[in-house]
Amino acid sequence: MAQQEKDDASGQQAGRSLTMSRAMVEAIAHEMRADDEVFYMGEDVADYGGIFDSTEGLLEEFGRDRIMDVPISETAYLGAAVGAAQEGMRPIAELMFVDFFGVAMDQIYNQMAKNTYMSGGSVNVPMVLTAAVGGTYNDAAQHSQTLYGTFAHLPGMKVVVPSTAYDAKGLMHNAIRDDDPVVYMFHKRLMGIGWLPAPDGPKTGVPEDDYTIPFGSADVKREGADVTVVTLGLHVHRALEAAADLADDGIDIEVVDLRTLVPLDTDTIRDSVAKTGHLVVVDEDYRSYGVTGEIIASVAEAGLDDLEAVERVALPDVPIPYARPMEDEVVPGTEDIAAAVRAARGDE
Amino acid sequence: MVAVNELQEMYENMVTARQYEERLQEEYMAGKQPAFDISAGPIPGELHLAAGHEAAGAGVCQHLRDDDTVTAPHRPHHIAIAKGVDLKRMTAEIFGRESGLSGGKGGHMHLFDPDVNFACSGIIAEGCPPAVGAGLAAKKRNTDSVAVAFLGEGAIDQGAFLESLNLASVQNLPVVFVVEDNDWAISMPKERVTDVENGAQRADGFGLQGMRVDADDAVAVSEAAREAVGRARDGNGPTLLEVQVHRRMGHFMGDPESYRPDEDKDAAEQRDSIERLESDLQAHGVDDETIDDLRSRAHDRVEEAIEWAKDQPEPESEDAYEDVFVNPPSGVTDNEPSTADTGGDD
Amino acid sequence: MSGTDDSVAVETSDRWPDDVDEDVGVVVNWFVAEGGQVEEGDSICEFQVEKVSVDVPAPATGTLAEIAIGEDEEFERGDRLALIRPA
């Protein structure tokens, strides 16, 4: 399979594999060693090492001047990252949960995302906004969202969503080196934290040297002939699980991992749909006005004739409920993906 | 002066809150051993327990009526108990059961009990503006209700809090902001994130009264809160009251607290406001038998609530689609169609 | 013992966290597969006891000859997690 080949070609030959959090941290540490202008700000990123291990171990190497605990003042410190970036530094600022973006929305969408354009390109904002996203552990409506579509909708931010350690490292190198603002959204369930066990899959081989994965290059995580499943983040792994189940029934799906929403790699999606004729889009964000609709529209605009059937699987338009039966209902599961694949094929 | 019966009432309330957190800790950790898995066991998700905070909830809410509004943060149980939130239905909510306050939709950070005007927000300081709104409503309607926003000392650097202080002050609203200072914003000690010695000093910049209770002392909290709530009820404006408390159980269950010096935790645990109040009761001549009775009543009530909650059924998965609106507009379905029915064209 | 005489056991006694009651841990991550090369001092796996997670450094440079406790498996304090055949 594609992923296995990639592992063999890159990480496994290094003889070690990493969790997604460790791969992210390795890239950050590398960039901080290489460039004194890179620093990290956030709540509980120093001594705690990030609630979701996003900065584990960095304080010891880089000290408090560069791994900065900041007050619970998202407007101030995200805005300060914008300002420092405009001065030419390369700040990384973390939102502990993406759900907290509302507290500081103006700095994100009116300042960080627009200053380049409003200045006619004379100002740029080379910062990374990291944020933990996602549900599946019953943290309820204010701590479980992904909000992929919200960030991708507003122009001026590049939006990155890794699904494996290998991708996480290469995308982080790219994010820090990029001269524009990058929102780097890491799924809590994929980080490889002991108390929040990850599915099989995100822990991969990771080269020790630095490498970049260009933005706008979706990755075919599994090749298949019958149905194209386009997804991102945690649901890459749920789609791969569904693929294994469907393969038992002779249905061969192709799993396309978007990796970045902005820029969006429509070519890879369209090439896949041209091959399979069937498109299923799977997203952990809300259904309406979001990622699923956008992907389908981008395919339809350019290659309507290739499309025989379309399905989408996403969170229904409700806040995320707390209790298990209800959260399980709204967050798309492996069986929901398999059902959508069958429906796209007209099996039901 | 706080009367003996008021001391007893606070004591029972605080023992209830402590016992509640200790029992929830047990229930929560069941199924999460030997290695902690946040989504396993009878109570999943984050759980922020308030052991060590009891004096703040009991001392303030003692002066409140059902028609007074309280907003609580992510660590709400002791405040809810002190405000008179239905303990059984609150417990069922925490266990994610159908009979919970929100039918299992909210969870422990999002407790709502309109019967006693209690609400929560899990986002730091974001309960402050709604409390200002409740104060505004009381003023416009010319009632003598008051509103109290509880927040942690980590929240005093947040815009929503600072803007709320200003709005409440300039509008002379019946609002009390209660800062529970447990010294730690998760792993961040307060001296790392603010240059003021205490949160009450924030009042100076906004023209409202600032008060601080320096010790984990329910009696002192009650006396300060009597003044602050009285000021609000009499139409004399808002107060910012900071109360020293301490954190006995980590920021959330699962927090290894490896950043926290052992001495800090040990010292904090010496400041037990419940033991202190027990001494106060004894000094007022309350005998041990009476104290034991208060304790056992509190324990029984907690046990009954937990047993009741665990017996309640889980919600149906389809319940997830209800309550987005009280008056669903046409086009919003009660039941999400299965993926098989949705072709991307609906 | 499945290793040769000069094999070095990977175990956790000296890494066990101080402030836990449990004597049972769970291996949450292996960073090297069986047969892979390890360098003394590098983290080769991570285990968790209660709420505390701990990295285990390779006690010797060589080949990770055998993993005795796999991911998500429980073990008791003092159990051998793996064997390293020194280079």
Automatic annotation (TrEMBL), chain A:
Instruction: Report domain Transketolase-like pyrimidine-binding positions.
Output: 18-193
Write down the SUPFAM superfamilies for this protein, in alphabetical order: Thiamin diphosphate-binding fold (THDP-binding) (SSF52518), TK C-terminal domain-like (SSF52922)
* Annotated keywords: Oxidoreductase, Thiamine pyrophosphate
**Pfam families per the UniProt record, alphabetical:** Transket_pyr (PF02779), Transketolase_C (PF02780)
InterPro entries the record matches: THDP-binding, Transketo_C/PFOR_II, Transketolase-like_Pyr-bd, Transketolase_C
What this protein needs as a cofactor is: thiamine diphosphate
GO molecular function per UniProt: oxidoreductase activity
Q: Which GO terms describe its biological process?
A: organic acid metabolic process; sulfur compound biosynthetic process
> Cross-referenced CDD domains, in alphabetical order?
TPP_PYR_E1-PDHc-beta_like
Task: Name the PANTHER family for this protein.
Answer: PYRUVATE DEHYDROGENASE E1 COMPONENT BETA SUBUNIT, PYRUVATE DEHYDROGENASE E1 COMPONENT SUBUNIT BETA
Can you say what this protein is called?
Transketolase
Which source organism does the UniProt entry give? Answer: Natrinema limicola JCM 13563
Taxonomic lineage of the native organism: Archaea, Methanobacteriati, Methanobacteriota, Stenosarchaea group, Halobacteria
From TrEMBL, chain C:
Alphabetized UniProt keyword annotations = Lipoyl
Q: Which SUPFAM superfamilies match?
A: Single hybrid motif (SSF51230)
Pfam families attached here? Answer: Biotin_lipoyl (PF00364)
Membrane-spanning residues? none
Domain Lipoyl-binding, first and last residues per copy: 7-85
Q: In this entry, which stretches build a coiled coil?
A: none
Q: What is this protein called?
A: Biotin/lipoyl attachment domain-containing protein
